[in-house]
Amino acid sequence: DEKEMAKKQAGEASVRFIENGMTVGLGSGSTVYWMIRKLSDYIRDGMDVAAIPSSRQTEAWAREFGVPLTDFSKTQQLDLTIDGADEADREWNLTKGGGGALVREKIIASIAEQFVVIVDESKLVDQLGSFPLPVEILPFGWQATVERMRALGVEPVIRQTDGEIFVSDNGNYIVDCDAGLINHPDALHNRLKQLVGVVETGIFSGMTNKLIVGYPDSAAAFPF
Ligand code: DER
C-alpha cells in the first residue's frame, strides 16, 4: 500500500548517508526495516560498517540481513543513527516509542554525530500530540508514578499486549499519554523526566539533524 511504499522510499534513501567504515545506530520500526534491507545490499557489495541495534527486533533483522553488529564495550560514539518516528513537528521535534524501544533509541540517537530520521509523510504534524506520548516507567510503584504524571496534566494509559502489561526490552512498562497538543515539547519532557519512576519520554526534542520524507515513489531529504 502507499504508506508502506513511502516508508520503503524513506528507509532506502537514508542509506545514502552511510559511508564505508562507519559505525551506525539502527533504530526500530517498520521504516527502519526497509533501511536495514537496503543497507544489507551495500554490505553484500563490500561496504564495511558495524551497527548497534536499538531493540531485539532490530537486532534480529540485522542478523537476518547480515549487518555486522558491535556494542558499547567497543564503541561509545556513532557516526550516524537512523531511526523512524511516530510524529515530527515543524522544528523536527519527534514523538517516538510507538514500537516500545524509545529508551534504547534515544541512547543511540544521543551518541551519534548525525541523527537521521526517516518518516512517511503521514508523520508530519504542525504540533506533536496527536499520537499518544509513550513514556517508559519502572514497574515498581507504577500506579503511583501514573498519579504523579496525572498531576502534571497528562492522562497515562498502561500499554498492554493481549491483555498483559507490555514489558520493554529493558524490563520496564510503557504508558501512552494523552498530553493534548504539545506546544513546548522540551518543557513537557523536562517536567515528566524529573518525576521519580519515569525512565524516559518519547519526546526527542532538538535532536534531529536530517529528516527524510518518503512518498509512494520518491523521497526528499532535508536540509538538502
Ligand atoms: O517506536 C518508534 O519510535 C519507532 O521508530 C516508530 O516511531 C516508527 O515506527 P514505524 O517506522 O513502524 O512507523
TrEMBL record:
One of its GO terms (molecular function) is isomerase activity. The active site is at residue 105. Coiled coil: none annotated. It comes from the Bacteria. Its EC number is 5.3.1.6. InterPro entries: NagB/RpiA_transferase-like (IPR037171), Ribose5P_isomerase_typA_subgr (IPR020672), Ribose5P_isomerase_type_A (IPR004788). Keywords: Isomerase. It catalyses: aldehydo-D-ribose 5-phosphate = D-ribulose 5-phosphate. Substrate binds at residues 28-31, 83-86, 96-99, 123. Pathway: Carbohydrate degradation; pentose phosphate pathway; D-ribose 5-phosphate from D-ribulose 5-phosphate (non-oxidative stage): step 1/1. Belongs to the ribose 5-phosphate isomerase family. Homodimer. Catalyzes the reversible conversion of ribose-5-phosphate to ribulose 5-phosphate. This is Ribose-5-phosphate isomerase A.
